[in-house]
Amino acid sequence: MRTKPTKDELAAAYGKTIDDVIAPDLDVLFCGINPGLYSGALGLHFARPGNRFWPALYRGGFTPRLLDPSEQHELLGLGLGITNVVARTTARADELTPDEFREGGRLLAARVAEYRPRWLAVVGITAFRTAFGLPKAKIGPQDGEIGGARVWVLPNPSGLNAHWTPAALGDEFGRLRTEVHSE
C-alpha cells in the first residue's frame, strides 16, 4: 500500500527515475509525460493520489478492478505496461525543455521498437506533439506508427487537467480498449 512521502523524500526525489513496467509484446504500452516528485519518492508510476490514471484504466475496462499504484506490476499480466517520454522526475512538467521532449521521443521510439507493443498510448497531447514534432496531433488514434506500434494519444490524467472529467477520461481510455480488442 501507498505511504505518503515526507517533504524531505519529495525534495530528494528530484531528478530520479522510475523503472519502466515493461515486457516484450504487450498489447498497450502507456506512456506518461514524466514522473512527478511524489511518484519518484515512492518509485511508482502515477502515484500522486489526485492522479486519475488508475481510475481511468479501470473505467476504460483495462483492469478488472481499481489498482493501486503499488500494484503496477500486475499490469504485465494484463498485457499492459508503463513508461515515460522523459525519465527524470520534476515537480512540474513545464520544467522540461523541448529538447528533453524530443530526445525522450527518440528514446521512446527505440524502446517501442525493442519491446514491440501493439499500441503505444501517450497520456498527454502537448508532450506528444513536442516529442514527435506533430503540432496538429489531436486526442485519439494517430496516423502512422512509432517504433512499429500503432499510436493513440490520451488526455493527461493529472488532476490539474480538470476539463477532462473522470467519466470522460474513462470513456477515452475505453475507446482505446475497444480498438485494441477489436483487432
UniProtKB/TrEMBL annotation:
Instruction: State its Enzyme Commission number(s).
Output: 3.2.2.28
Tell me where on the tree of life, at the top rank, the source sits.
Bacteria
Q: Is Hydrolase a UniProt keyword of this protein?
A: yes
Q: Which UniProt keywords apply?
A: Glycosidase, Hydrolase
**What is this enzyme's class at the first EC digit?**
hydrolase
Put simply, this protein is called G/U mismatch-specific DNA glycosylase
Which species does the entry assign this protein to? Amycolatopsis coloradensis
